[in-house]
Specification:
Blueprint: E1 8-12, H1 15-26, E2 29-34, E3 37-41, E4 47-52, E5 70-73, H2 77-86, E6 96-98, E7 101-107, E8 113-118, H3 127-130
C-alpha cells in the first residue's frame, strides 16, 4: 500500500531563491511551481518541495530533534567538492571518511544542513528486497 517517499518539503522565507540555488549549485531542476511553491528534482528523481515559510526560523544543530540534513550522492567526490568551492559554498569543515564513505557538510542559503556523500559500497538492501 505504501510505496515510498514522494517528496519532502523545506519551508523558506524565499522559496524561489532557494529553489534556484539548488538548481544552480547542485544541478537540481525546477520541475513544477504553483502559488509560490517549487518542486525541485535531483538527477536521480528525488524531489524536494520548497514552500513559503511562516514565522521565525528555529535554531537547529546536528543532533537536535527533527530532520537534520539532506545527503547529496555524488559519483566523483573531489570534482563535486571542487565545483562547490569554486561556486563559493562555505563548508562546515574538511571532507572526511566515515566507514569508507567520503563526506563534507555545508549549508544552503537558508541554513539547512546539506552534505555530499560518495559511498564506498551501496547501502545493503532491505530485508524484504534481499529475499
Amino acid at each position: 500500500m505504501f510505496t515510498g517517499i514522494e517528496h519532502f518539503a523545506i519551508a523558506s522565507a524565499n522559496p524561489k531563491r532557494l529553489a534556484e540555488w539548488y538548481a544552480d549549485t547542485l544541478e537540481f531542476e525546477i520541475t513544477y511551481e504553483y502559488a509560490g511553491n517549487y518542486f525541485i528534482e535531483a538527477q536521480n528523481g528525488a524531489l524536494i518541495e520548497i514552500i513559503p515559510a511562516e514565522g521565525a526560523p528555529c535554531e537547529s544543530g546536528m543532533r537536535t530533534p527533527g530532520m537534520r540534513h539532506i545527503a547529496i550522492a555524488v559519483r566523483d567526490f573531489d570534482a563535486a567538492h571542487n565545483q562547490l568551492a569554486a561556486q563559493g559554498v562555505k563548508f562546515e569543515g574538511e571532507p572526511y571518511v566515515n566507514q569508507g564513505n567520503r563526506l563534507v557538510f555545508f549549508k544552503d542559503p537558508d541554513g539547512n544542513l546539506v552534505h555530499l556523500i560518495q559511498r564506498e559500497k551501496p547501502l545493503p538492501p532491505s530485508r524484504s528486497k534481499a529475499q
